[in-house]
Amino acid sequence: MAAPSAHTRIPLDVRQHLTGLIRIALTSVAPEHSLAEIILERPKQASHGDFACNLAMQLARALKTSPRQIAERLMHELPPSEAVAKIEIAGAGFINFTLTPAARTAVVSAILASGSGYGRGPVRTGKAARRLQVEFVSANPTGPLHVGHGRGAAFGASLASLLAFAGYDVTREYYVNDAGRQMDILAVSAWLRYLELFDEPVPFPPNAYQGGYVREMAEQIKQAHGDRYVHPAEAVMAGVPDGEDPEARLDSLILAGKDLLGEDWSYIHAHVLNEQLADCRADLEEFGVHFDVWFSERSLYDTGMVARAVTALENSGHIYLQDGAKWFKSTAFGDEKDRVVQRDNGLYTYFASDIAYHLNKFERGFDKVIDVWGADHHGYIPRVKGALSASGANADRLDVTLVQFVSLFREGHKVSMSTRSGEYVTLRQLRSEVGSDACRFFYMLRKCDQALDFDLDLAKSQSNDNPVYYVQYAHARICSVMTQWDGESAELGLADLAPLQGNSEFALCARLAEFPELIQIAARDYAPHTLAFYLKDLAGDFHSWYNAERLLVDDQATRQARLALALATRQVLQNGLSLLGVSQPVSM
What we know:
The chain is of the alpha/beta class. It has helices at residues 14-29, 55-63, 67-77, 101-114, 147-165, 181-196, 212-225, 233-237, 246-261, 264-286, 297-302, 305-315, 350-363, 380-390, 427-434, 436-443, 456-460, 467-485, 503-513, 515-524, 529-548, 556-579; strands at residues 40-41, 51-53, 84-90, 94-99, 131-135, 169-176, 293-296, 319-322, 325-328, 339-342, 368-374, 398-403, 406-410, 413-414, 452-455.
């Protein structure tokens, strides 16, 4: 490689710069492969340089030449660059690049110039424009959110923020299941508790909703309307024959409530829905999780979209009639069995409304729809995609991400949780115990499709073993240093970075330089957990440097350079933590 030109400027995006140099060399050596993918990776060992490229090995078969020979030819054709201190060929044919100190530290200036925009992807326009919808949580509004819902909320919110930061146009949506049997069960549960307040007790079904919040809603109804909705227990039980199985008995109680209350049943139903939905909204807002759209399942019925979706499937030959019910031929699309979309009594199933809902998403113009579901919905994927395909939609536009279960541990013992008994640990209780920051970060410490063991004691500890504390402490440390310095942060953007010569400083700079690419890869793979891992590594690099070097030294040039690096680190910590919904304390 020829000597660098004195007029060559140090590039801020070194990876892109090196890729461009390699592309020029490739065009000269093998023009027929000039569009081949060029991959640059960080070597695991610092002695192997700052970047390694395996292009020579990729081309060996096509060029019928040994990788080392190809690497030598590529290296010879590389244009000069002031950013590159050394190029070596290693192993079977890797091309290793060692950057100059100025190129290694250039990222500091780039970060300080970009601020909160560092790492943000360009807005996608034209053919690259991508309107995305992320639908997550969507829990039935039948009770407080539990810790499992919390993981889905943390994942979905972080994913949506990550995609938006990567340059996509993102809509966050919650699907309100306000039209099904579960809401009827909640309504009858509250009504039965209401009757107890007037000494008209009905044997409470074990499969109804048991939590204290049900009794609270019953008391609210009593305070607002007195005995208006009271009916004798004998009248309620008259339509509930003995010997029925629990689910059928519960359905009989629901029918009894609808018959006895008439139009007043709508009030009971609306009251419990509104109470639980408001509680859910408040819980999520306090958790830092916000939605652009709250979409009502009931609206699908009121507008006839469910009926139209089923009719369209019927007209296209994907529905058959059996025992008075309409069945969708989902086995033709990989499902284990066909599915009912309309029962023999004329009522549509949950599946029918889900078909209509997903068709509606595409009708709203989203290029990609991302559903975040619980792991127990795995079998639901092929039938929904099958129904979309059968309806003429492109099912590849639907991506489903599954979130695995959460287990809480306290003092090494698993915390028992339930769902309908009312004894489960709620998200609000978890947040109260460990804080929202710990919740948001700990939920991201495992890939979403892996089960998560949540250590409550660790989440509350103020030690370096606690990952969220460790990362936030790095941010707080930098804030403390900046306060002690008491200078103007703006002047650090113009600092001479030449005094940054230590290995720990170069390692920290290298970590900072990874952030933009990490954002794009994490967005592409729907993997916000990689951002949490990155922030832990970044905090570790900073703590190591901080513990080895004084920042506020007497020499002004060295002090300014080190403060600039610290400030750049704080900025990336802020950017990353914000995407995960975690605060950035200035003191701890």
